Amino acid sequence: MTRTTAEAASPSSEKAPGPTKQLCNWIPSISLDQVPDEVQTRAKHILLDGIATLLVGAHLPWSETAVRTVFSFEPPGSGACNVFGWGSETKITPLQAALLNSTFIQGFELDDWHSEAPLHSNSLLIPSLLAVAQHEASVSSNSGGRHITSGKDLLLAAIVGYEIGPRVGLALYGPNILSTGWHSGTVFGPPAVAGAVSKLLGLNPAQIEDAMGTACTQACGLMSAQFGSDAKRMQHGFAARNGLMGALLARGGYSGIKNVFEEPYGGFLEQFSKGNGKTPSFLPDEIVKNLEVDWKTKGVNMKPYASMAATHPTVDCVRILQERHSERFKDSNLDEIKSITLEMGSDAFHHGGFQATRPTTAVGAQMACMYVAATQLVDRQVLPPQFAKQSLDRNEIWSLVDKTRCVQNDNLGDGKFAQRMTVEFADGETATAEVQNARGVDPELSNEEVVTKWRDLTKDILDEERRKKIEELVLGLETCEDVDALIELLTPVVPSVLA
């Protein structure tokens, strides 16, 4: 039906609440008692993984550049919120603290990602929620009391965010948005943060709708950031900051866009689906489909490798070849490799199948399937040391990169992250490996493996007592009376993992 000019210029009206209002009504209604125990337990392990990546990322070179730059225009002492891993004298405003702490979590491609709708939830939620907790405690103490955020409060708000982000993503066909050039997590992220922070602040449905509207109008993120820029590390931080701003403005009475997801003219789903070639172009019902039945928190995956998610099947293929053909893939025999072909689906190809070029930066290397494959072949691991500055210009790596090509193949099977690697040797022999999903997705890292990862990542930057206290507090979050205890443990200076 043709809409008149007047109709096109006016907000959408509905007889029944659309997905925006349904979501905004759900957020204040959900209680921790309604969340299954297994989801709560998984959420605590997800949070522990996020804290590990935060501390590991606090003093990476690009993180230090970001901190020094922000401190130059917002000096320490200007707010109530800590920059974690930098000491107790680093308090700045909640928006900038959320930005920097998020940048740390995204600092080394070690953080979580969602298998259905890719975003890095911890880099969105942990910084914004802890910033709010500190800010609220400071503001209330100035009035003669002190607002306390309990561990239960933090856990529930995080679960709300874990649920919202992927649902918004699925309304835009999940990873398909990467193929159109958007950085998916920075598009899906602002409403997840707005919802989680709104839950923590106790906002009502009308305020939450305002928070969503203001958060969503700030959503953005260009995927060209992956080609070597420091901005890639910070883009989820922009989303964390913007979602937090939306919630704070809404609490103050500032109105946001109504029905922001489904509004037909300039609405969130309408705009971010343009040109995606899908019919229908977006799926608004996915935002509230099976709430409290299909828990999207379960789809938050933790990474075993320090690289972009689409490179993980690449690493898995190399590992299979190294195990099956141990002699052929010995270090001394890598010169005999004539060519490497990596086949992958459309989303992975557009995200990680680009030609890596020398010289590169750590972020460019971590995003490139062909570079990551060479790293696993040479070093037999893909962890932070592989992307230290001195490791990025090695001849043995680039010799293999130059022999590698990535090919799009959408007929590799039913797995969302299916990839196939074929290696040809100088004598004409070939070796092939194929996976349908990445390790970390199928199989996912168990809770026990997440704890092992936490301990491995932090063993050189935390003393045993501090590490143990953080671990016990996070895994027992429902018994924590005041999350200030966690904030105090995250605040002291940590050394650089690349030192």
UniProtKB/TrEMBL annotation:
Q: Which Gene3D superfamilies match?
A: 2-methylcitrate dehydratase PrpD
Q: Which InterPro entries match?
A: MmgE/PrpD_sf, MmgE/PrpD_sf_1, MmgE_PrpD, MmgE_PrpD_C, MmgE_PrpD_N
The molecular function GO annotations come to: lyase activity
| Superkingdom in the source lineage | Eukaryota
Q: Where is this region: Disordered?
A: 1-21
Coiled-coil stretches noted in the UniProt entry, renumbered to this chain: none
Q: Where is the composition biased (Low complexity)?
A: 1-17
Task: Identify the residues that the record assigns to the MmgE/PrpD N-terminal domain, covering every copy.
Answer: 21-277
List, for all copies, the residue spans of the domain called MmgE/PrpD C-terminal.
Answer: 305-476
Q: Which family does it belong to?
A: Belongs to the PrpD family.
Query: What's this protein's name?
Result: Cis-aconitate decarboxylase
